[in-house]
Automatic annotation (TrEMBL), chains A, B:
It comes from bacterium (Candidatus Ratteibacteria) CG01_land_8_20_14_3_00_40_19. It catalyses: (2R)-2-phosphoglycerate = (2R)-3-phosphoglycerate. GO terms for molecular function: metal ion binding; phosphoglycerate mutase activity. Pathway: Carbohydrate degradation. This is Phosphoglycerate mutase. GO terms for biological process: glycolytic process.
Length: 400, 400
């Protein structure tokens, strides 16, 4: 749906929408059943009979989405138009708050030899503890460069984030990480004319890092990639006239929600905590994005049983969500993560929409294969928000 | 999927993909069953239960594709963006090998009266034998014109191909065939400035042809249309990093495969020959396009029973393909050719994809109507290659 058409149709009302995202929900069969089929989900199955079902696709058929594009699509933003740089995503993942003028780079602690040739792109996967020590050292020695404030933040093992805060930082420079061993670190090159000064700054930074880390046995350089700013996205308030809130236990998802202007509600670590947060805030917002992480995590581990368990756990909380009487409840995944593949996959997401204005599909259960038979068909995930707005009667008629 | 995005995602591995195209596979019911439903296909039905099914559409809903656009779509090229001229398609159909600098024109032997008015656009559908004689005569008398080498090639009845080989030939001139009787042959007009010289050459050619054929009772002119060059298409190697091979018994399909950079494997006349060729070459390529012509031919004849027979014959060879253990096997048509309509039609193609990474749809048989229930849904045929690449794990994740 084009933004300018949607803008003319959208209207406010007092309805409440809940978008429950079970990360990596979709799966593939092992012994004949997918995780969702194997799970005992009396509540989800009951909703599948009362709701409209379908299969949503984040980017395009056959394309496996990362978490960034998968969420942007569900939020109604074209994930090809709005690409989020690796540096920004990594920064969001550790809970960093970025200003639109900041640059974020994903860094790898790495080893180079005396001639500058990369011998190990991951510095032997140094420990996270050692990573933190090196970040403290770099922070102490290089807190700024030419009036640009620098921050070095440890992620896991060899991964770090470098944040650049200052005036006139321009996005559009190439990586210094050649993504190969046996080569030298690359010069950052301006990909657009305006980025010349920023590229030069990043090259000076690499030089300074090498000076500081010289002689360090564990890692003596940092390779940078995905040097990026947060993309400008019209907010949920602008685009949908929705006061929206995010309930998520993992920083990256809170960061993604913040990009689209959602308020981030403090919550605990468990699904129960998240449901409590939903209940406490239910009167204060129009739209809730509720994110359950563990489905994806166990899928990535190839742990079929534990993924089944997470889905069953979510199922037990469904009645509590129902008792809040949201006008629209959508239950879906951002992407599939079959335990069989131990990673994200291209398979479309089971999608369930419940409202008093939807066509009940009378399906007997909620699964990848039953959703094939649903009235929503297979559709781009970017259309999900429009369906939610329609079902909450927040869209006027198009034309007379 | 946009080419530049696909290019960033595609990667090589050792998987094998087989695309089996049963030309004109889809049909319409006569006495309640389509050809595919009436055929006994125990092997295809078994695969339909293990694979993911759907319906693919070559150009757009309701649009009946020719063989050129139908194949380009299956190969992943937008058939509206890449249009193949009539002259080129006709030349490929008789096995002519075209260089990118060659022009090919479809010709009609025709009759004109003394004032140049066309009295019969098909010269009374002269015999193919007579057509050949006239081509030999023209070839002898007009082997070249202004350093452009000419070839006259008989097709069937009144149809011929005129090939122009030379420097500086430009595509973009109008037809000389007015497609109407009672009018004069048209002047070829340059549709772009650069084609002025080529248009003038074609007009001289018409004049020369008329001089040579003057007084011939059967046909005394040739009307030209679709004067075209082969379109530039990025090859399978460039686009998908696939070493690809074509196994087809008919020249046109070999020609189409060559346009996208496939290697053409010599084969015999029967399905058995084609399967043998597949077996012999299975270790040497990543991707095989295997084309079965007869489904379409019998559909065009309105011969329901023989089309059923071809489908049943293909079915008996399925186990031999399975024994090769391709990582991805797709079985579909390029377009539908219902015997009922005696021609190509707009109905979408039954599509079956088998891989160990697909969601098995548990369908009870392979047919137009069962494919409606499949998890792939109805989708543009241009997405088929992306699905094959995904299922062979040849695509990286999009975004992080």
């Amino acid at each position: 749906m084009e933004n300018n058409i949607l803008r003319d149709l959208v209207q406010k009302n007092s309805s409440r929408i809940v978008l429950l995202v079970i990360d990596g929900l979709g799966g593939l069969p092992i012994n004949g059943k997918t995780e969702l089929e194997a799970a005992k989900t009396p509540n989800l199955d009951r909703l599948a009979s009362k709701g409209s079902c379908g299969l949503s696709e984040a980017v395009a058929p056959g394309i496996t989405p990362g978490s960034g594009p998968a969420h942007l699509a569900l939020f109604g933003y074209d994930p090809i138009k709005y690409q989020i740089g690796r540096g920004v995503l990594e920064a969001l993942g550790i809970g960093e708050e970025l200003e639109p003028s900041d640059l974020a780079a994903r860094g790898n602690f790495a080893n180079i030899d005396e001639e500058g040739i990369i011998t190990d792109r991951r510095a032997g996967r140094i420990s996270t503890a050692r990573n933190k020590e090196l970040c403290v050292l770099l922070q102490k020695k290089i807190s700024a460069l030419e009036e640009v404030k620098l921050s070095f933040k440890a992620v896991k093992e060899h991964r770090c984030v470098v944040l650049l805060k200052g005036k006139d930082l321009v996005e559009g420079i190439s990586d210094t990480d050649p993504q190969k061993e046996g080569e030298k670190t690359k010069e950052a090159i301006p990909l657009i004319k305006e980025a010349k000064k920023t590229a030069s700054l990043v090259n000076k930074l690499t030089k300074r890092i090498n000076e500081v880390l010289k002689g360090e046995a564990s890692a003596n350089t940092v390779l940078l990639r995905g040097i990026s700013k947060i993309p400008h996205l019209p907010s949920f308030q602008e685009k949908y006239l929705l006061r929206s809130a995010c309930i998520a236990t993992y920083p990256m998802y809170r960061g993604l929600a913040k990009l689209v202007g959602m308020e981030i509600l403090p919550t605990g670590e468990t699904i129960k905590d998240e449901i409590e947060t939903l209940k406490e805030n239910f009167q204060n917002y129009d739209f809730f994005y509720l994110h359950i992480k563990k489905g994806d995590s166990y899928g990535e581990d190839g742990n079929f049983e534990k993924k089944v368990f997470v889905i069953e756990e979510v199922d037990t909380f469904i009645p509590e969500i129902e008792q809040l009487h949201p006008d629209v409840l959508v239950i879906t995944g951002d992407h599939s993560t079959p335990s069989l593949l131990k990673g994200h996959s291209w398979h479309p997401n089971p999608f369930l929409l419940l409202s008093k204005n939807c066509l009940p599909d009378n399906l007997s259960n909620f699964s990848e294969r039953s959703c094939c038979q649903g009235s929503l068909g297979k559709f781009p995930a970017t259309q999900a928000m429009v369906l939610m707005l329609a079902n909450s009667l927040r869209l006027k008629k198009f034309g007379a």
